[in-house]
Design goal:
By secondary structure, this protein is an alpha/beta fold. It has helices at residues 2-10, 12-19, 30-45, 59-68, 78-85, 94-102, 124-130, 150-154, 159-166, 178-187, 201-204, 232-239, 247-260, 263-270, 282-315, 320-334, 337-344, 354-378, 382-390, 395-425, 438-447, 450-478; strands at residues 22-25, 50-53, 73-77, 106-108, 118-123, 145-148, 172-175, 192-196, 207-209, 222-227. The strands form three sheets. The chain has a five-stranded mixed β-sheet. Strands 3-10-4 form a three-stranded antiparallel β-sheet. Strands 1-2 form a two-stranded parallel sheet. The radius of gyration is 27 Å and the shape is elongated.
């Protein structure tokens, strides 16, 4: 538990600062980003300090964050609430839905005014060539290449029950990111994808929506879900948004967000404000992302060093304990980083917070440090060990004065490897709204905007080079002069 307690202390000030703000979450698609910004501005206009954690993931991540208190509210849809959160089969009225949510400590605003239902879309020329007009027409074309978002593949109102309802036997179905799916449609890599009915890209890319002729999809009326312990004045401010967004208006805001690559600018149109360029704070945003990235990497690496080197020392000795340490640290490294984050989020003490990201990075940092420490000590020649004993040194003195200095180059190489790996892996922290240089990368993927992606990718690459140079410089501090590589 000590590493976990230390992580909590490292981020105590950060968490304390966030506690003074109303935190708005959003999912990883354009409309949710825009609605998050609208909610933030609404709360700020009402006199509250508010911030947005954009692109935090899918429904389950946001719902867990809301229940855990990491966020105070986020935009959601009635169809998703019924199918994915409450998991009810009979259709629910708004009052019934609200009552069931209140039993879980969550409130729901009234409907914002638009219905963003799911849809299946194709390129117009491709649909015309194959004579496809409605979803049932797909039965005659089982060989089409279909790319669906990963959430839609697994939803109760998603692909599997839809296929059963329509009797579809499609052979080529794969998971793909929502934004990248539009690029795949454009270049012909896929023939069909899922979309949201208010998505501006449907018209911009001249796509055709297949008619849901069996009326499979429920209504997806937009609302805000919020914690019942949120300030009632904040709830009242959000309720003023009810009924103010119809389908056409929401589609225009989505289009503006994708045109300008700026969700806040698009949200400002809702309030009748003239969009003002924010390019002058570009350096500030890069600096903020980089600083948070360094916090995540630095905290996790520090914990990796203070835990990994002692474990490596123990693993350098023969026996079952050593095998267990090396095997366990190796197994942790094989867990996909996204899966590890998802597994940690629902656990007590973690949730959607920097603690979760730091602990995941700490686990990933262990293997290179443990293995290099063990290998460096095991490679010390027997003659050196015998000489250390012949000098009359106690075992602890042998370790600190002889063995660790001799193994220092190998140990430092493991630490350097962990640091560089963590710089890259830390970009995934943005998937749970923690920030860092992954934030522009994820936003750029959503917008299919390579410039935005590079705003995160280039600083991350430069940061990795700086980290490597920093540890190269540490050779002169920790590695005995006789063991250093000659220039």
């Amino acid at each position: 538990m000590k590493p976990i307690i230390l992580i909590a202390l490292i981020f105590a000030l950060s968490v304390g600062a966030q506690a003074q703000r109303i935190v708005v979450g959003s999912k990883r698609f354009t409309e949710s980003y825009v609605l998050g910004e609208i909610a933030k501005t609404t709360l700020q206009n009402a006199g509250f300090a508010a911030e947005v954690r954009p692109g935090m993931g899918g429904t389950i991540i946001l719902w867990q964050a809301l229940q855990g208190g990491e966020i105070a509210l986020y935009p959601e849809y009635t169809g998703t609430i019924a199918e994915e959160i409450l998991k009810t089969k009979p259709p629910l009225g708004t009052d019934q839905m609200s009552a069931l949510l209140r039993q879980r400590g969550v409130g729901m605003t009234g409907e914002l005014g638009f219905d963003n239902t799911y849809a299946l879309v194709m390129r117009r020329d491709r649909a015309a060539k194959l004579g496809l007009h409605q979803i049932s027409d797909l039965r005659d074309h089982p060989d089409l290449n279909i790319g669906l978002t990963h959430e839609f593949l697994d939803r109760q109102d998603g692909w599997t029950p839809l296929s059963a309802r329509y009797g579809l036997q499609m052979r080529n179905v794969r998971g793909i990111d929502h934004a990248l799916g539009y690029a795949a449609l454009a270049n012909g890599s896929i023939d069909l994808k899922d979309a949201y009915s208010t998505d501006a890209r449907i018209a911009e890319n001249d796509l055709v929506v297949l008619d849901d002729d069996l009326h499979f999809f429920p209504q997806y009326k937009a609302v805000f879900l919020y914690r019942l312990d949120m300030d009632k004045r904040a709830v009242a401010a959000l309720e003023k948004l009810v009924g103010t967004l119809d389908d056409a208006r929401m589609t225009r805001l989505n289009s503006e967000a994708e045109r300008t690559k700026d969700y806040a600018l698009a949200a400002s149109l809702y309030f009748g404000q003239k969009p003002v360029s924010r390019s002058n704070d570009f350096i500030g945003k890069i600096g903020g992302w980089t600083w948070r990235h360094l916090e995540l990497v630095g905290a996790s690496l520090f914990l990796g060093i203070i835990a990994g080197i002692p474990l490596g020392i123990r693993a350098s000795r023969p026996g079952p304990v050593s095998n267990f340490i090396l095997t366990t640290s190796g197994m942790i490294q094989t867990i996909p980083s996204l899966a590890l984050l998802a597994l940690l989020v629902p656990l007590p003490f973690f949730g959607i917070s920097p603690v979760t990201a730091v602990f995941a990075l700490f686990l990933y940092s262990l293997l290179p440090i443990v293995r290099n420490t063990a290998t460096g000590l095991q490679d010390i020649p027997t003659s050196v060990r015998e000489s250390a004993a012949a000098l009359g040194l106690e075992p602890r003195a042998q370790l600190w004065k002889v063995f660790l200095p001799l193994a220092s180059r190998t140990i430092l190489a493991g630490v350097k490897t962990s640091a560089i790996i963590n710089v890259g892996t830390a970009t995934l922290a943005a998937l749970i709204g923690v920030g860092g240089l992954g934030e522009p990368i994820i936003s750029g993927l959503n917008l299919n905007d390579y410039q935005t992606i590079l705003e995160g990718a280039i600083p991350a690459a430069l940061l990795a080079l700086l980290v490597q140079s920093f540890f190269d410089g540490l050779d002169r501090v920790f590695v005995p002069k006789g063991l250093r590589l000659k220039q």
